[in-house]
Specification:
The protein has four helices and 37 strands. The chain is mostly beta strands. Strands 1-7-8-9-10 form a five-stranded antiparallel sheet, with no helix packed on it.
Length: 444
Amino acid sequence: MFKYFILVIFLWSGSVSAQTSQLSMFAASPTHPGVYAPDNHTSLGDIKWAFKTGGKVFSSPAVYNKAVYIGSGDSSLYAIDKTTGKLLWKFITGGPVHSSPAVYKNVVYFGSYDGFYYALNAKTGKLKWKFKTGGEKKVGAKGLWTMKPDDMYMDDPFDFFLSSPVIGTDNHDPIIYFGSSDGNLYALHARTGEKKWAFKTNGLIHSSPALYNSNVYFGSWDTFLYAVDAQTGDLKWKFETDKQLLYHLLEGIQASPACSRGMVYIGSRDGHFYALDAYSGKLVWKYAADNSWVLTTAAIKDSMVYFGTSDTYLFLGFDAKTGKEKIRYKTNGYVYSSPALTSNTAYFGDFTGNLCAVDINSGRLTGRFETSGRLTNAKSILDSAGNINFSLAAKGKDLAYYDATVYGMDRLYTLGSIVSSPAISNGVIYFGSADNYVYAISLK
């Protein structure tokens, strides 16, 4: 029943160091340094630093020049010195910052639950512009998942993220694209924040867009994956995932798409992972995940596609063309953190506070880092095997009631759950945690 994920990215086959001074983002972009780092690191080393914010960190980091940029549930965006872990500056908004920032030409872009998208000077944190959407909120329903009281509106406790921006840089007028809970996918002029166009769907958009071959790809809570023209916002095609009203809530799309070699890949809360033709939207193959939500964004390298699942606790690798499963690794909890890749290794977090390093050829665990929250609280919350048991986390409270589910979630969060997706830069991996920390871990 309890399943969810976030956003990440896809593959950049060029030099990461050449990109970091120009573009850094955690949206589904081929030029995101950190999702693919072409080096031979295979495991996790020592902690370099841990920076404590005032709230849970669901945002994923963008590493740009000498700084790590990341949002927090304390309504702030932080700029942290990537070497020392010292605060450079922070910018306070009117709501939690659960989107992930993008940085381009010394400007950092991100969204907040206060309903604004922001552009800040990346060096100083000074506001350049802000754009008001129609409002941001979590998905929810009365009597969510048949929980009681059935006449009470309930926010989905697994709706962690807002849509994160991607930036089109192919012309002299860079465009920023992002989705909103008001149902629109927006395209703004990145320099001014002026709206270029908006494309309306019939659901909340917490999926982050991907740019590929002059199109923007994104999912909506209305169960459709859309492809629209990046310049005009005109619809090219849309693909409907399994449309079912389950537990009083439509099972839509929160995962973010990844694109490569004429294909677009995306997971859904309908319990499937889809591979589609990027030009026509036709289904090529799909994976049924045992009714588990698939809400990480895939990472693609060579002929393989990698992603995680929720209730089945899996990290999986498939042949990108055929959909044949090649590797699997079972974690201790939900995998909502999307993978970052080096030459032979995938790095991602799980909901129990583990950051895992897994060999992408064999599926073998090569390293693990435990958050401060997990080290402190695992014995009192997890089962004897170290796995999530939601009833145990809720201390036997009746999960037919919404407040019992929220109580169980709050207990799980004390593990330092990792839903943030890591970024890699110069032999260091950066990520956020529900124990309020941003971590920097050396790779080996």
